[in-house]
Amino acid sequence: MTSASPRPNLAITAYRQLKRDIIRGVYAPGEKLRMSHLKERYALGVGPMREALSQLVGERLVTAVSQRGYRVAEMSIEELESLYDARAELEGLVLELAIARGGDDWEAGIVAKAHALAKVAEVHSAEDMLDVWDTRHQAFHSAIAAGCDSPHLLQARTWLFDQAERYRHLWLCQTVFSAEALDAKRREHAALTDAILARDTPTARAMMREHLMSPVPIIKEVMQQR
Q1: Which of 25, 61, 174, 196 has the most other CB atoms within 10 Å of its CB?
Q2: Reported pTM
Q3: Contacts of residue 49, Cβ cutoff 8 Å, sequence gap at least 6
């Protein structure tokens, strides 16, 4: 007798879909999240939506307003600068440890992910470009970080990345649809990979900080135009 397919976790479905929409700007910072609208948009009941909202409150993407429901968390230049500076500092430490601890398999993983990222220009559908480039870009940086061999640092890294994701999306929309911007990023990734493989820690760490901080002026400009 064939067992029935497991019932999907509706709260997880609600969480993933709502989080994606918040990150992609479907809901503006500060916008009230009305339960009637959420139920209709995601075709889910109150229970799963409340669970999703509670989880997103914990991730600071949503704020709970006493007796008034939920709103999308605000965004600010101050938070942008603080998050990106913290990310750059932590990523530099993780990179330094990875260079000291990573072996041949670690190097091979970086080269493979860098190659996959460089080929994104071959994705011709504008609809797919954002998802493909972002996924491969994250995979490249995760391959670098993996060599640090510190679960706690990697957990902190993931938390900071998630906190910055709404800001990153503003930058992505200005980058992945520009051939010139993509080419510049491709050169940055190639130079960073070379420095890492050469085990040149000071150069690689300086490159990583510059690479991570370079989106900040672009994001600021986008935010100020809103």
Answers
A1: 196
A2: 0.86
A3: 14, 18, 35, 38, 39, 42
> Tokens standing for 114?
């860098």
Pair 65, 95 in one domain:
no
Give the C-alpha separation, 58 to 5, whole Å: 31
Strand order in the sheet with 62-65: 32-33, 69-72, 62-65
Confidence of residue 174 (pLDDT cuts 50, 70, 90): confident
118 and 63 share one domain: no
Query: Is 116 found in the same domain as 56?
Result: no
13-54: pLDDT as tens digits: 999 999 999 998 899 999 999 999 999 999 999 999 999 999
Q: Measured between alpha carbons, how far is 216 from 74 in angstroms, rounded to an integer?
A: 17
Tokens of 180: 């010139």
pLDDT above 50 for 4: no
C-alpha distances out from residue 220 to 78, 133, 213, 214, Å: 10, 22, 12, 11
| Residue among 19, 123, 115, 78 at smallest CA distance from 216 | 78
Residues 148 and 154: their CA atoms lie apart, in Å, by 8
Task: Report in angstroms the alpha-carbon separations of 179 from 59, 175, 196, 221.
Answer: 33, 8, 26, 20
Sole residue written with tokens 């990106």: 84
Q: Is 156 left (phi over 0), alpha (psi -120 to 50) or beta?
A: alpha
Q: Retrieve residue 7's tokens.
A: 């019932």
Domain match, 183 and 109 both: yes
